[in-house]
Design goal:
heterodimer; A: alpha+beta; 15 helices; 41% helix; 20% strand; B: alpha/beta; Rossmann fold; 4 helices; 5 strands
Chain lengths: 485, 181
């Protein structure tokens, strides 16, 4: 943890934010009275990953894009495959192909959400935001007799989801399951039976985790309602009947009161509705809803947005949980940042229910795996990744090579909301006192973690990740710079 | 704002299950140049099909690795290293007692610590740090230097696995084991 407080320059830097993907840097700018003027979360992301795809044959892309992110390779795999389905005219998948992909996707959701909740979020909830960070981590949870079971459950749920991915994508790394127009394998009876043996336990643990998240949120509602929270728009895919659907659907955007901004938009036309702004201080793009403009058009994605935006969830226990969730805000969108955790656990239970439903579907043992149709040169593919809506957009020439690629990843969409959350927390904990307290650090981390951001594209070589801290004066001059290996 | 736990039962794990022999985990992102050294070593080692050696590969170490780790007598973590000695180092690693969990990935010390805390077993463990040089582009290849280092590391670890002799290889400038991997 590096912290820098420089009163003269009125800028405070916190670097890195712990227990989120990769690492990030937060700068808080104070005015002359030491009130928070602006807070920014800087995400160190490579802008070059679209170039990585250019010139490659389209059929390689669903495998290739998994290298973009070691955290959620399945999301990129499926979004790219969906795009290339359209390139080969094979978007109407066979039942076996679509259900295998859905099983892969629900497996990914299950393991990703479980990991985040049990190993990243639960220390905050179990020990309190102000607890010593030396204890407030997954080892602290494992060491505490009251909670040790939770840490084991997190590992076992994660493992279950990873095994689903392995069985559907072919392997944990460089999965090849989804191919343009379909899938390259079905699920064997042996694989199915192995998962059926454990699925009821997974559903049960999901129920318990949901209760933990729900009870925590309800019990602390008064405090959480103002913690890093703000009104926002919400965006997600929904099915044609309004149901939550993380694999396929149309785009729906609602405002903070639940009023539609647009609905059932075919995502092939996303550029008519979503634009991306570049800001000089960040490598990231800032997507916004065109009709509202860049100032008002930012939106949240991910579990909170999905639960807010959908009309219902098509599995019984998750739907009952959604109704409880929405009742807290009288069926209006829930804009409490910390409610992300509750929403995430509703989705975890939904994923478990869906996995069970799919495992009992004989279509998974079908042999009709691939379809094709009229060739196209441009297509868009979307999925709801665990962290939010993921856009892939490609153009392919007559030589089958990709000539244009544009990706909007979920953490990019949550860029403005995370900045808002940090600013709200900073306003509460820092104004008037130009110092970084442990409490401030803890609360900023907790607020950012609610979004489960993916901050880097996953190099994890030992010794890498030096921390670079720069201090800028009011004129933008660098007055100090520190690096820590 | 701590919360009281509900009655969640600890899942049953068989603590008397026979232990496997050696587990080698090669991790890193092959799409980020030399960050793919770990998976490249794993892929090469798999072709050797050594008796009693299980080879795994992933983008990074994760918490669920604690379970298979707890089920083996010896574990070798193979990863790229941005600043270590050339061509590689090989050193013992112990469970971490104070863990900084900085992301969804986890360090060898931390995952050993988890194995110890959660499953009450911890293997003899080693880190094989293979020196890499290029990391900051999206490209799927190893640099010439990294390829050379990989061959040295592969020859060393293959011999070690065949003989079940795990001797530390440290250089004067070998880095301390960190939680940054």
């Amino acid at each position: 943890m590096t912290t820098t407080a420089t009163i003269g320059t009125k800028k405070i830097t916190i670097d890195p934010v712990t227990r989120v993907e990769g690492h990030g840097r937060v700068t808080i700018h104070l005015d002359e009275e030491n009130n928070v003027q602006q807070a920014r979360m800087h995400i160190i992301e490579f802008r070059g990953f679209e170039r990585f795809i250019l010139g490659r044959p389209y059929w390689e892309v669903p495998v290739l894009v998994q290298r973009l992110c070691g955290i959620c390779p399945v999301s990129h795999h499926l979004a790219a495959a969906k795009t290339m389905d359209r390139i080969v005219g094979g978007e109407n998948l066979t039942p076996t192909a679509e259900k295998m992909r859905r099983l892969m996707h629900y497996g990914q959701f299950f393991q990703s959400h479980a990991l985040h909740f049990f190993h990243l979020c639960s220390p905050d909830l179990l020990f309190g935001f102000d607890a010593d960070p030396a204890i407030r981590n997954v080892i602290g949870v494992a060491k505490d007799e009251r909670y040790a079971d939770l840490a084991v459950q997190g590992v076992m749920m994660r493992k279950f989801g990873q095994e689903i991915i392995k069985a559907t994508a072919g392997k944990k790394i460089h999965g090849t399951g989804a191919i343009p127009g379909g899938i390259n394998k079905n699920l064997s009876i042996q694989e199915r039976d192995m998962f059926l043996k454990d699925i009821d336990q997974m559903v049960e643990w999901s129920r318990q985790a949901l209760n933990l998240a729900k009870n925590y949120t309800v019990e602390h509602l008064e405090d959480l309602a103002s913690f890093g929270s703000f009104d926002s728009n919400h965006l997600s895919l929904v099915r044609e009947d309004g149901a939550m659907d993380i694999y396929h659907g149309n785009l729906r955007a609602i405002d903070a009161q639940g009023e539609p901004i647009f609905d059932q938009v075919d995502y092939q036309d996303y550029t008519d509705y979503i634009a991306e702004e570049v800001r000089p201080w960040s490598y990231m793009k800032f997507p916004f809803i065109k009709s509202l403009g860049p100032e008002e058009g930012w939106y949240r994605v991910g579990p909170l947005a999905r639960v807010n935006a959908c009309d219902f969830i098509d599995t019984p226990e998750a739907e009952a949980a959604r109704k409880e969730f929405m009742a807290v805000t009288e069926d209006k969108p829930n804009n409490i940042t910390m409610a992300y955790h509750w929403a995430r656990m509703i989705e975890t239970l939904h994923a478990a229910e869906k996995i069970k439903e799919l495992l009992n579907d004989p279509d998974l043992q079908g042999t009709d795996l691939v379809t094709k149709g009229e060739r196209r040169h441009e297509a868009v593919g979307l999925v709801e990744a665990p962290r939010g809506t993921l856009f892939h957009h490609y153009q392919v020439d007559d030589n089958d090579q990709v000539t244009m690629a544009n990706l909007i990843v979920s953490t990019t969409s949550n860029n403005v909301p995370m900045n808002r959350a940090v600013e709200k927390v900073a306003e509460e904990y820092i104004s008037g006192k130009p110092e970084i307290t442990e409490g401030l650090l803890n609360h900023i981390e907790v607020a950012i973690r609610a979004y489960d951001p993916c901050l880097s594209c996953a190099t994890h070589a030992m010794g890498q990740m030096p921390l670079i801290v720069e201090l800028h004066d009011a004129c933008g001059n660098v007055v100090d710079k520190k690096t820590r290996d | 704002m701590p919360v009281e736990m509900s009655s969640i039962k600890k899942p049953e794990t068989d603590k008397n299950a026979p232990l496997g022999d050696v587990l080698v985990i090669g991790y890193g992102n092959p799409g980020r140049l030399d960050d793919g050294l770990g998976p490249a070593l794993a892929a090469a080692l798999e072709k050797e099909t050594l008796d009693g050696v299980t080879v795994d590969s992933n983008y990074q170490l994760t918490v669920e690795d604690a379970l298979p780790i707890s089920q083996h007598k010896v574990v070798i973590f193979a990863d790229a290293d941005v600043a270590g000695p050339e061509p590689f180092y090989f050193k013992a690693v112990k469970p971490g007692k104070h863990v900084t969990f900085s992301s969804h990935s986890i360090s060898p010390r931390s995952v050993l610590g988890l194995a110890e805390e959660l499953f009450e077993k911890v293997p003899a463990a080693y880190v094989l740090g293979i020196r890499g040089y290029e990391f900051n582009e999206f490209e799927e290849r190893l640099s010439t230097g990294a390829q050379n280092n990989l061959q040295h590391a592969l020859a060393f670890v293959t011999n070690a696995l065949k003989n079940r002799t795990f001797t530390e290889v440290r250089e004067q400038n070998a880095p301390a084991e960190t939680n940054n991997s």
